[in-house]
């Protein structure tokens, strides 16, 4: 059973070759995927993330540049000495005429600072009390009081009166700074109104994500969507950085060192890594397609390559003892397989010649051994029968002697006619009837015998005189310590392609150790010649000769069984001889 299971788990050569290439392809696929992820995807991902961070810095620099332009414009105004005197005179003017004159001077200074190109909404000048003096265009609707703008702003910061501040009101961002001389004396305030949409336009086209610019207090100064709030906002701990939020979006930020504004770019992760995923997906699809093509190619190649081998294996399986001249159906085209086929055919021819020689020699040897064994059993049988006839003659039983001579004549004719040819079981049973008829003349009513066989007995072939020794054993040994009547029953049965011959008696049976001794003698006796000086004791010359001749004929297709009858109705012992119905004897 273990061998069958082991055989069932074996794979064909084609399957092994295919699985080997499959494992190799899977290994290549794994190496390719690792290569794509480590050598291509990971660096590309890091570069993409770095580019996203650089983009945030570029956006921030664009806004810083715009704010710096306003700062430079304010510096050009502060660089004019006339602005201080005009601011001072306007504050101390006693008439409107004098005030308007100074305001005109201030506008001229503003005009010179702004120049021909204008990228702001308006510019306003306030006195040192924060009251509006003048506005360049007046289109920005600047508040009359600077504190009003400061307080209305959502920033809520305190004015430090140094540097500049950026305030947002609705869609207007105001750049506010003090007008002071080198000694730090404050003459008033300058306010440049910038349009929030203009700053937002500066951030567009640089990145695919949404841009939001917040001040240090978290108020949105400009961005893709005005008025968007950032819940739980906290000031970043670093000037630049990149992270991923809970919605799987990349968030990059960059803090301006001049304005303090924090530029945020929110980009969906799939937008950032979309090209990377495309490269990864295309690589996997490409290698998968190559693998599928390789699978089909390997399968077809191995099948075509190994087809001659499978045919050769099929021819070997079909080969048997009587069919040694099989030829391969198709000549293989592969040179190596062609040489293998020629070598196989040459091997078969030489094997057939060797088998023919061995078969002929074995046949002659078997005939010689069979002749020697039968020559031993025939005199033994004749001696026993003549002894019985002599006893009957001494007792004056003429009729019995006549019948015994007739039975003896038939038996001798059976023995000497073609003594080396095999006979049918029916003929062997008929000879046994003659023998039992001779023996019954001695035991009369004390011996009962019965032989049962059907037409199958005409198909079974046996050597001559193989049943008689078992019957002799019953008469001479089985009934020695048993009261008559003594019964011998011979039955022939057939089942599952086997035939079985049973010889049963109602004697005293065998001792357990005797059965083992008999079987051991049969096992070790082989097919050697038996010496003529052996007695007819149980397990000796008669039985062993019969078994050896059956072995010569049936080889390993014969089974001998000996056992005692243990039922209440039956006593004694049974000897079974089981053989195959095949006619291929040698």
UniProtKB/TrEMBL annotation:
Assigned GO CC terms: membrane
Domain Signal transduction histidine kinase internal region: 370-446
Every Histidine kinase/HSP90-like ATPase domain range: 462-577
Alphabetized InterPro entries for the sequence: Bact_2-comp_sensor_kinase, HATPase_C_sf, HATPase_dom, Sig_transdc_His_kin_internal
Sections of the chain in a coiled coil: 341-368
SUPFAM superfamilies in UniProt: ATPase domain of HSP90 chaperone/DNA topoisomerase II/histidine kinase
Keyword annotations: Coiled coil, Membrane, Transmembrane, Transmembrane helix
Transmembrane segment boundaries: 17-40, 279-300
Molecular-function GO terms, alphabetical: phosphorelay sensor kinase activity
Claim: rRNA-binding is one of the keywords in the record: no
Protein name, as recorded: Sensory signal transduction protein
């Amino acid at each position: 059973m273990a061998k069958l299971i082991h055989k069932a788990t074996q794979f064909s050569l084609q399957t092994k070759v295919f699985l080997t290439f499959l494992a190799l392809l899977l290994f290549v696929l794994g190496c390719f995927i690792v290569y794509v992820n480590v050598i291509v995807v990971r660096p590309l991902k890091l570069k993409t993330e770095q580019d996203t961070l650089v983009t945030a810095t570029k956006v921030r620099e664009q806004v810083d540049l715009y704010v710096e332009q306003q700062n430079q414009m304010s510096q050009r105004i502060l660089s004019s000495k006339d602005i201080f005197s005009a601011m001072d005179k306007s504050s101390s003017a006693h008439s409107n005429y004098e005030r308007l004159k100074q305001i005109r001077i201030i506008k001229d200074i503003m005009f010179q600072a702004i120049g021909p190109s204008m990228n702001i909404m308006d510019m306003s000048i306030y006195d040192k009390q924060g009251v509006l003096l003048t506005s360049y265009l007046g289109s920005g609707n600047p508040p009359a009081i600077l504190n009003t703008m400061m307080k209305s702003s959502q920033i809520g910061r305190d004015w430090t009166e140094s540097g500049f501040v950026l305030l947002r009101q609705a869609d207007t961002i105001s750049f506010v700074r003090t007008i002071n001389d080198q000694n730090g004396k404050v003459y008033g305030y300058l306010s440049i109104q910038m349009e929030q949409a203009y700053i937002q336009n500066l951030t567009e086209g640089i990145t695919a994500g949404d841009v939001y610019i917040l001040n240090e207090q978290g108020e949105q100064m400009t961005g893709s969507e005005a008025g968007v709030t950032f819940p739980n906002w906290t000031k970043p701990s670093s000037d630049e950085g990149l992270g991923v939020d809970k919605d799987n979006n990349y968030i990059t930020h960059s803090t301006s060192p001049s304005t303090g504004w924090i530029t945020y770019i929110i980009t969906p992760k799939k937008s950032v890594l979309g090209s990377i995923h495309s490269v990864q997906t295309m690589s996997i699809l490409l290698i998968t397609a190559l693998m599928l093509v390789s699978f089909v190619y390997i399968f077809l190649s191995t099948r075509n390559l190994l087809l001659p081998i499978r045919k050769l294996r099929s021819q070997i399986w079909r080969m048997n003892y009587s069919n040694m001249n099989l030829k391969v159906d198709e000549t293989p085209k592969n040179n190596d397989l062609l040489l293998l086929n020629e070598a196989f055919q040459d091997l078969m021819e030489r094997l057939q010649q060797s088998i023919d020689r061995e078969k002929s020699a074995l046949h002659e040897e078997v005939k010689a051994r069979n002749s020697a064994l039968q020559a031993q059993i025939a005199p033994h049988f004749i001696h026993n029968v003549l002894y019985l006839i002599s006893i009957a003659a001494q007792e004056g039983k003429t009729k019995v002697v006549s019948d015994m001579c007739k039975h003896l004549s038939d038996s001798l004719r059976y023995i000497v006619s073609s003594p080396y040819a095999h006979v049918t079981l029916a003929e062997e049973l008929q000879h046994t009837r003659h023998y039992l008829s001779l023996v019954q003349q001695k035991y009369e009513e004390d011996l009962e015998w019965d032989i049962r066989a059907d037409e199958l007995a005409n198909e079974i072939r046996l050597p001559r005189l193989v049943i008689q020794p078992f019957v002799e054993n019953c008469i001479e040994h089985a009934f020695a310590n048993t009261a008559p009547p003594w019964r011998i029953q011979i039955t022939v049965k057939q089942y599952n392609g086997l035939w079985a011959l049973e010889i049963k008696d109602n004697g005293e049976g065998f001792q357990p150790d005797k059965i083992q001794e008999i079987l051991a003698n049969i096992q070790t006796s082989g097919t050697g010649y038996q010496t003529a000086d052996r007695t007819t004791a149980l397990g000796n010359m008669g039985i062993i000769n019969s078994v050896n001749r059956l072995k010569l004929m049936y080889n390993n297709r014969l089974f001998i069984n000996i056992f005692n009858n243990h039922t209440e109705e039956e006593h004694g012992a049974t000897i079974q001889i089981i053989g195959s119905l095949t006619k291929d004897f040698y």
